[in-house]
């Protein structure tokens, strides 16, 4: 959030950095691992490979999302093509791309998926 907030402030965008993490209890993304790799059938996605990485600081992802394309290769996962759908005139061309090693990304996705599961009954 700090990276995009700094970018939006420096670019002089109105309402800069009004993001928060996605509240998993409020957002029906389907399979989290598939969503984070840009290959889910989530109803949210407006076009192939595009996901909301951040939601609004009010907790509703659709209110003020930061979107990006997710491009996965054999060795890496890239976030690029950032956009704010409620301000389509904004230019995020100088923001990113962010490239992650595929093994590290998959590990982070596994950890996020495990953290999102309800606790098992004892």
Helix content: 10-25%
Which class best fits the helix and strand makeup?
A: alpha+beta
- Tell me the strand percentage band: 15-25%
- Give the overall shape: globular
Major sheet: arrangement of strands: 1-2-3-4-5
Helix count, DSSP H or I runs of 4 or more residues: 3
Task: Give an account of the 3D structure.
By secondary structure, the protein is an alpha+beta fold. It has one domain. 25% of the residues lie in helices and 23% in strands. The protein has three helices and five strands; from the N terminus they run αβαββββα. The chain has helices at 2-11, 32-36, 102-116, and strands spanning 19-20, 50-56, 66-72, 76-83, 98-101. A five-stranded antiparallel beta sheet has the order 1-2-3-4-5. Strand 3 and strand 4 (76-83) form a beta hairpin. The longest helix has 15 residues, at 102-116. The protein is globular, with a radius of gyration of 15 Å. 23% of the residues are buried.
List the helices and strands and how they pair.
Blueprint: H1 2-11, E1 19-20, H2 32-36, E2 50-56, E3 66-72, E4 76-83, E5 98-101, H3 102-116
Antiparallel strand pairs: 1-2, 2-3, 3-4, 4-5
What is the compact description of this entry?
The protein is an alpha+beta fold. It has helices spanning 2-11, 32-36, 102-116; strands spanning 19-20, 50-56, 66-72, 76-83, 98-101.
């Amino acid at each position: 959030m700090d990276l995009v907030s700094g970018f939006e402030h420096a670019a002089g965008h109105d309402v800069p950095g009004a993001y928060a993490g996605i509240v998993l209890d409020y957002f029906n993304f389907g399979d989290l691992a598939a969503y984070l790799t840009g290959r889910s059938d989530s109803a949210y996605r407006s076009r192939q490979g595009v996901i909301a990485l951040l939601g609004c600081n009010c907790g509703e992802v659709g209110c003020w999302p930061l979107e990006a394309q997710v491009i996965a290769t054999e060795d890496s996962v890239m976030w690029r093509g950032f956009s704010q759908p409620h301000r389509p005139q904004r230019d995020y061309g100088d923001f990113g791309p962010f490239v992650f090693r595929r093994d590290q990304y998959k590990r982070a996705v596994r950890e996020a998926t495990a953290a999102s599961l309800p606790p098992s009954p004892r």
